[in-house]
Specification:
Two copies of one chain form a homodimer.
Chain A: E1 5-9, H1 13-23, E2 28-32, H2 39-44, E3 47-50, E4 64-67, H3 73-76, E5 86-89, H4 94-110, H5 113-121, E6 137-141, H6 145-156, E7 160-165, E8 176-179, H7 184-188, E9 192-195, H8 209-213, E10 218-222, H9 231-239, E11 243-248, E12 268-270, H10 280-295
Parallel strand pairs in A: 1-2, 1-3, 3-4, 4-5, 6-7, 6-9, 7-8, 9-10, 10-11, 11-12
Helix pairs in contact in A: 1-10, 4-6
């Protein structure tokens, strides 16, 4: 595939412009904010690179679309895709970043950071025994690249990590992988549930009342997509003590609206979609590698999106 | 060595009584709080088991003293020891516990837990990019059992871990081990300094003005002993930005006195000596194993204290 004209759009287009200028790659670029991209740009370009489609996105003469993020639901979920257009996504240190995010909140909880902080504020010296991370059972939804890196790091600390996936195919680093429809019993015994799944028709509202009802005083971390969670069911699960703690990095609407009840809800920790940021440098590296592979005619690039599956 | 009469003293003597009763070991025991132990008890007993000497401690007919904690400075520091009396210490999951304590505070810092909590409290959605733990350089003082376990866990996450010890002997899991008198340059480039050292004449006030002056906006974790730190120098280091954060689990006087300035000092996190607690069950397990080894005449038990070295 021959790619000559490329739109680079989105919040980090300026930083990407500088990096690409330094790389010496010889193509025609238009570096634009999402708002600046016109209908004509899509007719001009061979390729579009961005976090999501612009509001006026159309396929025009595009042959290739490259997502700067790992999640491509912005391009595919509830949208029609032109199957002649190649869709690729960025793969960088997401797995590592998400793993450290999750581990930080698990350790925060079992090391009683909040309790000790509160005790310090009133000069109270009272022993509470931290638990070891290996005393916990963790269930990870999603056994792809990100889920596997998470399982690798947690299992290296002695944690029993169970995976849940559509196929139930066994994967390295997981104690066991189970099909999603058979996860009930597993969930009833687990301490932490972590969602790493992409948003697809199968994962929309997957974390609903039925699922939360299986839990007993568990903790939930969402580093997948906000729309995979039924927010009302989440609140109810906190009310009913199915959930003790929810650590949420992603939301159906982002930024999380000011009137959302989640902001002030006890037992909810909110972070602004930072568990797996793509830095401009990482985005450029992955974009240039993918470009090179596509031009070499090597269509088996690791980061090609399966349009049917949606990830 | 024949041990028949044993004093079990200290805060967990009741729990230890229950565990030992269940173990079926056939000895004469006196289970006592520290205050209840009399002069006569020491003349009666072959062995004393406790966290520290009682205030009326004397060697009497003791042949063996077993410390329930890993640190034996309570028995040896600024005291005379009868060299005919065997001193052993508890070795359990201390290394693992201390490692998870340290990792929890490193991750808390680099994942900006406090900043995101503050943002949540005012419903602010602002991206800040967490760093990866592998971008940090950590210096661990003490390359013994605890320091090595800490180096093992941090290095498995990609951290460059440097060790500092009296001898400078290279040890597994450390990128490099350096003699304490040569640590200056290393300290000037590090992000985290962690003290795991026992209290001895060599480590008393080791973390003094000279040492802190080498640091540039670094973080300090003390999971060794409080008396290894010059508290005035620590405060000065925070004032001067040699230190950005001090996470302190141990103090010269414990519980930390109400009038200590550390309680309210910004940049100081205080926990009540919980990084490496001995549970009653772990204490009993280690005590019984040591007892068995001593009775078998196997004096090469792993947990024998070198009285000269003080650990």
């Amino acid at each position: 595939m021959n790619i000559e004209k490329i739109i680079i759009a989105g919040p980090v287009y300026q930083e990407m412009k500088n990096s690409i200028a330094n790389s010496g790659v010889n193509k025609h670029f238009r570096f634009l904010s999402e708002k600046e991209v016109t209908w004509e740009d899509f007719n001009w370009a061979d390729a579009y690179v961005g976090f999501r489609p612009t509001s006026n996105f159309h396929f025009g003469h595009l042959k290739w679309v490259h997502s700067i993020g790992a999640g491509v639901d912005g391009f595919l979920f509830n949208r029609k895709w032109d199957k002649d257009v190649l869709l690729t996504r960025t793969i960088t240190s997401f797995g590592r970043r998400i793993s450290e995010y999750c581990l930080s909140y698990i350790l925060m909880d079992i090391q009683y950071h909040d309790t000790f902080k509160q005790q310090q504020s009133i000069k109270k010296w009272k022993t509470i025994e931290p638990k070891l991370v290996s005393e916990h059972k963790v269930v990870v939804f999603g056994t792809g690249e990100i889920g596997q890196e998470l399982a690798k790091i947690l299992s290296s600390l002695g944690v029993d990590v169970y995976g849940v996936s559509r196929s139930g195919t066994q994967k390295q680093y997981f104690h066991k992988v189970i099909k999603s429809e058979k996860a009930d019993q597993l969930l009833s015994q687990c301490d932490w549930v972590i969602n790493t799944l992409p948003l697809t028709v199968y994962t929309e509202k997957m974390f609903n009342e039925d699922l939360f009802n299986c839990l007993h005083n568990a903790c939930f971390i969402n580093v997948g997509r906000g729309a995979s969670v039924d927010e009302k069911a989440l609140i109810k699960a906190l009310d009913n003590r199915n959930l003790r703690l929810a650590v949420l990095d992603v939301f159906k609407n982002e930024p999380l609206p000011q009137d959302s009840g989640l902001w002030e809800r006890p037992g909810v920790i909110i972070t602004p979609h930072i568990a797996a940021l793509t830095t401009a440098n990482e985005a450029v590296d992955c974009f240039l590698q993918t470009l090179e592979q596509i031009e070499r005619g090597n269509v088996s690039v690791k980061n090609i999106v399966n349009i049917e599956q949606g990830y």
